[in-house]
Amino acid sequence: MKEFKYTITDPQGIHARPAGLFVKAAAGFPCKVTISKDGREADAKRILGVMSLGIKQGMEITVTCDGEKEDEAAEALEKFLKENL
Amino acid sequence: MQKEYSGKPVFSGIAIGKISIYHKKESVVKREKIDDAEAEIKRYHAASDEAKKQLGELHDKALKEVGEANAAVFEVHQMMLDDLDYQESVENIIRTQGVNAEFAVATTGDNFSEMFANMDDEYMRGRAADVKDISNRVVGILNGAGAGGFTATEPSILVADDLAPSETVQLDKSLVLSFVTKGGSTNSHTAILARTMNIPALIGVDFNEEGLEGRLGIVDGYEGKFIIDPDEDVLTSYKEKKAEEDEKRRLLQELKGKPNITKDGHEINVYANIGSVKDIADVLTNDAGGIGLFRSEFLYLGCDDYPSEEDQFRAYKTVAENMAGKKVIIRTLDIGADKQVDYFHLDHEDNPAMGFRAIRICLKRPEIFKTQLRALYRASFYGNISIMFPMIISVDEVRKIKEIIKEVKAELDEEKLPYKDCELGIMVETPAAVWMSEELAKEVDFFSIGTNDLTQYTLACDRQNAKLEDFADSHHPAVLREIEYTIKNGHKGGAWVGICGELGADTSLTETFLRMGVDELSVSPSRVLAVRDAIRNTDLSVGQ
């Protein structure tokens, strides 16, 4: 299991478009990917769930990758977040 | 009978035209029992796939019309349809309740929509509309409902309860002048798309749509007004406003980035006059080549005490930097007894226009003058600053100014503060300066003719006195003669000559000034392009 934390810098938080791209990226990996904030968890491959977390600028999220290609997934998703959110 | 409603503008502008009502797709959802759940689920997926296909088409259409960022909403909609939570919810309802797909989708849509509507973030609340929109689309495909639309045959003001993103994009733009909705939010996709489409739009307008179809309406996107059956005078007034607005837009589109050059190839500078740092945006939007007059009084007015060198330095530096190398001509303080500056302790004067003001205060109170000059020279390091002195009447004044500048430079050198040498100029706004222009031209790098005060002093007419309107002819030949004389002498002495008074913006005189040989016209930002237009339409090689 690979885990990393990230603090959102985009002033709009996780809004529709990057949420969609993030979900797309997560869906590309076979492992389970979870995104959580303040103890609330959502499947990172389900866009409605991710958006329902209401993640705003300044909030810290934890992304957990569990399963096949978890290292690759964690690396790619962390890079995505740094570049887009 | 004129009726007026108010609403929140999401984009400014004025629209005048017939009103047309947008009718939503009828999708009444009936809850019906079904026998074959799996077949129903297949039906749902088929409709969902069709919906995704339609969204893809809308995305492509939107890409061309509103750009990638705003078209992306349709991709998000496709992802929402793909969302496993959404799909599982629909399938679950069909299986456990044994009901039709329409009901299952509508219920799922409502549930997710409500979840978003209850979030504390305004942006997320706007997403409730997205979920509703995609659900409606799927339901519409399932029950074969007719498409929504409107019946206008000419460009019209579209009114509706609300418009879903897909509906906005599908609108035949050539038939829409503006839209007015009862619902909506400033962050809704509708608002975003309206802004990108450049259509005036209002939201939150509580109108009654009965009998509205085909009536004449006005949308005022500046004041947030929706007017139905306008009175004659209201209509005329708005028609004028719209004509002005259209002209402004045309100028901007056609002339931005073009040189201020006559048909026969003679080019001059067109700069802007401003009075505060926040006006810089206007200068740049209107494509002025520089700032021909930056009135520095704002730093002194509305204060309890003299602005410090640091305060001034910061302001001048900001302007210099924001203008990124374009010329900024800053005029030193032009204050008099008529302005509210108690801390200057100026005695009351019967004749402040001809009193102890401007450069006279600076020469008699060199500490104040030096503070401003120090700030100006220090700021010059960060851009292209020229300094201009108001109310000059003699060569002696200019020589005294240059002595003080020498001192300022020596001090800055001693303190090792960086600065650049600045072009120095004077306002020619007194008859004395006009008469002495030949000598003055040898002392400075440029002149800027302040026609407002020059006219006042030359015609001996108080600018503020409305009774003198018939006497104070702004095109008085005496004034025009002074301008011509000043330009000639300026050039003789190696100075360039510009006009920063209101007369510079008078396009009926542009050709006259060009023929006199003026090098620069500095006008209010909103007039820059009109002056450019006049210059480009002039041909100096043709008669007179």
From TrEMBL, chain A:
Q: Which residues cross the membrane?
A: none
Spell out the CDD domains in the cross-references. PTS-HPr_like
Q: Which GO terms describe its cellular component?
A: cytoplasm
GO biological process, any? phosphoenolpyruvate-dependent sugar phosphotransferase system
| Keyword Cytoplasm in record | yes
Domain HPr residues, every copy: 1-85
Classification via Pfam families = PTS-HPr
Q: Where in the cell?
A: Cytoplasm
Ordered alphabetically, the record's keywords are: Cytoplasm, Phosphotransferase system
Protein's recorded name: HPr family phosphocarrier protein
- Organism field: Candidatus Weimeria bifida
Q: What is the lineage of its organism?
A: Bacteria, Bacillati, Bacillota, Clostridia, Lachnospirales
From TrEMBL, chain B:
Q: Which InterPro entries match?
A: PEP-util_enz_mobile_dom, PEP-utilizing_PTS_enzyme, PEP_util_C, PEP_util_CS, Phosphohistidine_dom_sf, PTS_EI, PTS_EI-like, PTS_EIN
Where, subcellularly, is it found?
Cytoplasm
Quote the protein name from its UniProt record: Phosphoenolpyruvate-protein phosphotransferase
List the Pfam families hit by this protein, alphabetically: PEP-utilisers_N, PEP-utilizers, PEP-utilizers_C
**Domain spans labelled PEP-utilising enzyme C-terminal:** 252-539
What Gene Ontology cellular component terms go with this record? cytoplasm
Function, in words: General (non sugar-specific) component of the phosphoenolpyruvate-dependent sugar phosphotransferase system (sugar PTS). This major carbohydrate active-transport system catalyzes the phosphorylation of incoming sugar substrates concomitantly with their translocation across the cell membrane. Enzyme I transfers the phosphoryl group from phosphoenolpyruvate (PEP) to the phosphoryl carrier protein (HPr).
Lineage top rank: taxon: Bacteria
Residue numbers binding phosphoenolpyruvate:
295, 331, 452-453, 463
Give the Phosphotransferase system enzyme I N-terminal domain ranges.
7-127
Q: What is the lineage of its organism?
A: Bacteria, Bacillati, Bacillota, Clostridia, Lachnospirales
